[in-house]
Structures are given as C-alpha cells and as structure tokens.
TrEMBL record:
It comes from Paragemmobacter aquarius. Keywords: Plasmid. InterPro entries: TniQ. The lineage of its organism: Bacteria, Pseudomonadati, Pseudomonadota, Alphaproteobacteria, Rhodobacterales. It comes from the Bacteria. This is TniQ domain-containing protein. Residues 9-119 form the TniQ domain.
C-alpha cells in the first residue's frame, strides 16, 4: 500500500528523541501520536519503545521518513543507538525529568535521560522531576549548587570513560543513597523522582572528590544498622578504604564522647 506524506512536517532538533519528535509531528498534524503511527503503518505498542531500538527497523525508519519528508538516517539518529554498558547504565529507560520551558513546547531531548543531566542544554533551565512537583522552598541553593557540581563530575567520568572516576562517583552516590534509606540501585537513586534523593546523591559525588574518607566518616558519625550495611556495600571492594573510614568514625566518636556531646 502506497502511503502519502503527512500534510505538515517539523524539523527534528539536535539531540531530540524520536518519541518526542513524533509527538511534535502528531501535534502539528492535529492528531495523537498513536493515530499518527497507525496512519503511517508503524506497529508499536508504545512510541517510547522506538527510542531504544538499537536500529529502528529499516522499514519503520523508511515509513516515518516518507511520511515526515526527512532522510531515513535522520530518523535513525533520533534513537539512542548502540550504547556501551556504562552509557546504558547512565541512561534512564523512561523519562524522569524535563525542562519546564522546553517541554511546554513539546520538546524531549536525549540529554534529559542522562543520569548526570542537570540543566537543559537548549535553554539552561534546571531540569525538574516530571513525577513530583518540587517544593522549591525546601531545597537549599547550596544543595543545588553542590549537586550541579557532582553532576558535572559524573558526566566527565562517563564521557571521558575513566573507570576510576566513575567508580569513585558511584561509590559516593551509593553511600549517599543509603543514608537516605533508598534501597533501589544507585542508578535508580540518581534518577529518583524525589529531588532530595537525587540532589543528595549528586552532591555526594562532589563531596567525595575532596578528602573522600573524611567526608564519608563525617556522614557516618551516627550510623544505624542499615547505614552500616550500606557503608560496607559501598566500600566492599576496597577493604583498605573501609578500614580507614571506620578508624575515622571511631576517632570522631571518641572525640565527641570526650567533649561530652
Ligand atoms: Zn529548556
């Protein structure tokens, strides 16, 4: 069956996500995205699933490209494509944050799915959880500043493919997540809809850059059982570091005891 192009088309933006662009295309053509896909003969349960198809099936890309009058390669380039294990770990499967300004215009970027993404790369506005309305008054500017710095460090660890930096960052985030009593994986904590959890984990990455042991130990002064297990888990592959943190914790406790606190 020969299908004709859609009445109107929109040009994909740099770094735009396929599902987001298809949604904008649907809006421009006054229909729902499901209707649009059905109309052009693409069979998928959810438009978001197309984002992760390593290579959108050639026939699917072809159908979309004819309908939207863009090159088939352009359609392919809007998916996440082949990712390394680290990239996959650092990319959220579902949207967890968005730019309050750009999303109003129907835009969705690949960048927003990165666990380290902090500010919108189009307009610079801070990305916000799409699930929980942030209570801005409760979040200190200092925490936001530190979290932004930690996010930058995580990004640099991932993009420079530096295993040591990444390990250090994830260890700090693992520990921070445990202090917040979050039992999910660290990667999930970094995409937590709860801004206090996400920001705290990112801030810990920045804190761990300078004097990681002292920072970890400071956090640990009032360790309860669960945090203690978390500490063990965060440092399990580094018994030497764990022992050092333990020594600092004990010393701090002793000092506090002597000071009569
Ligand atoms: Zn934006």
């Amino acid at each position: 069956m020969k299908r004709s192009p859609l009445p109107k088309t929109v040009t994909p933006l740099a770094d735009e996500l396929l599902s987001g662009w298809l949604t904008r295309l649907a809006v421009t053509n006054h229909c729902e995205v499901d209707e649009l896909l059905a109309h052009i003969g693409v069979d998928t349960r959810q438009v978001a699933m197309l984002d992760f198809e390593v290579e959108v099936a050639a026939t699917t890309a072809e159908k979309i490209s004819i309908a939207a009058r863009v090159a088939s390669e352009t359609v392919q380039s809007l998916t996440f494509g082949t990712m390394t294990q680290t990239e996959a770990l650092m990319t959220a499967q579902v949207a967890f944050q968005s730019c309050p300004d750009c999303s109003r215009r129907g835009i969705a970027l690949k960048q927003w799915r990165k666990l380290w993404a902090f500010d919108c790369q189009i307009c610079g506005t801070r990305l916000l959880s799409i699930l929980i309305k942030p209570d801005r008054s409760r979040i200190s500017e200092k925490l936001v500043r530190r979290a932004r710095s930690g996010a930058g460090m995580l990004e640099s660890a991932v993009t420079s493919n530096c295993a040591n930096k990444l390990r250090r960052a994830m260890r700090a985030a693992t520990y921070a997540k445990a202090l917040k009593s979050v039992r999910a994986d660290t990667a999930f904590a970094l995409q937590s809809p709860r801004p206090d959890v996400r920001l705290f984990c990112l801030a810990a990455i920045a804190a761990a850059q300078s004097r990681p042991l002292v920072k970890a130990a400071m956090f640990s002064t009032g360790l309860d059982g669960y945090a203690r297990v978390a500490l063990l888990r965060a440092f399990e592959k580094e018994p030497r570091l764990l022992a050092a943190v333990d020594r600092i914790v004990l010393r701090n406790r002793e000092r506090l005891r002597r000071a009569g606190v």
